[in-house]
Amino acid sequence: MIQYLIIMKYSIILTFASSLLIYDSTCYGDACQINGLSQEELKNLSYDPPRNELLSEAQDKKAWQTFVETYEIPVGKVQNWYNSIVDKNSADAAAKSFSTEVSPILKKLTGPAADMKKQVLSIPASSEMQKFILLRILQLQSRLLVIFLPMQSEREMDDNTCYRGSDLLFDTILEPTAQSAQDVAKFIDSRNESQEHIEASFKEPWSTSAE
């Protein structure tokens, strides 16, 4: 339990650190960097699976698989969507596919930690596995922030930006009246919560049965 609390503490710190540091992002030409991460490094972002003790029960194994299929894999697809933006044509294509490939998972992960906890509690599992899944969901939210916060906060300066000269992608992310831009804004706004609120979400009540 102590090990779990230490992991939770540092993961929460990581979540907040990444959301603050990405304001200092830059993106130039083919060497697109966000918060010091190259596109190749962004492609390889991943997290270790739960320790063996958390996977010893069949219910918890199934719960972890549900998490992977419902959250981890879809966020990976969003990561691939972002990594596909390498020139104007691919940026235009990314804008056109936003509503089908990106918006659904953004909506799924839009909300403060307390809302994410409600989703987690619907997954039958031990309380320890549920807490672990919530922790990973917050990390996935942080991964999406690394992508979308700079795209929302930067203005198009020249053809060598993240937008790759694509007015269509620029409007998709920033045009106030566009539903896609509203989805991005809602997601980012929903992550504006205090560490106390996040920590409170890990407190009771949690399900205690692992039938």
| Mean of all residue-level pLDDT scores | 75
Number of strands: 3
Query: In angstroms, what is the radius of gyration?
Result: 18 Å
- What amount of the residues lies in strands? under 5%
* Beginning-to-end CA distance, first to last residue: 21 Å
Most strands sheet: 3 strands, antiparallel
H/E element sequence: HEEEHHHHHHHH
Keywords summarizing the entry:
64% helix; disordered N terminus; 211 residues; mainly alpha
Briefly say what this structure is.
This protein is mainly alpha-helical and 211 residues long. Helix content is 64%, strand content 4%. It contains nine helices and three strands, in the order H-E-E-E-H-H-H-H-H-H-H-H.
Describe this structure as you would to a colleague.
This protein has 211 residues and is mainly α. Helices cover 64% and strands 4% of the residues. It is built from 9 helices and 3 strands. The protein has helices at 2-21, 39-43, 58-83, 88-108, 113-121, 127-153, 167-174, 179-190, 195-201, and strands at 26-28, 31-34, 37-38. Strands 1-2-3 form a 3-stranded antiparallel sheet. The longest helix is centred in the middle third of the chain and has 27 residues, at 127-153. It is elongated. The model is unreliable at 1-37 and 41-46 (pLDDT under 50).
